[in-house]
Structures are given as structure tokens and as C-alpha cells.
Write a structure and sequence with these properties.
This protein has 44 residues and is an all-alpha fold. The protein is built from two helices and no strands. It has one domain. The chain is globular and about 25 Å long.
């Protein structure tokens, strides 16, 4: 899923978004290379 950490380390995907840089995927639903902007993902 492109997560920088194991799923058991991620209790909430929104929390994860605050833990990683914008160049990483803030929403685990999509791959990193398909996320040009984290805000666009948030809108989805």
C-alpha cells in the first residue's frame, strides 16, 4: 500500500498523513506515484 511503516503501526490513516512528508502517500488507498498532491487525495 506504499506505507512507510507496517499496518500495525498505523492506527489511523489520517494520523499517518501527519507523520509522513507530503511526498509520501497520506492516504493508503493509492500508491505514492499516483499522489501528486496530498490535498487532492483528501478531497477524494
Amino acid at each position: 500500500n506504499g506505507l512507510p511503516v507496517p499496518r500495525d503501526e498505523v492506527p489511523n490513516d489520517r494520523v499517518l498523513g501527519d507523520r509522513v512528508p507530503n511526498d509520501r502517500v497520506p492516504d493508503y488507498r493509492v500508491p505514492n506515484d499516483e499522489v501528486p498532491n496530498d490535498h487532492r487525495v483528501q478531497n477524494d
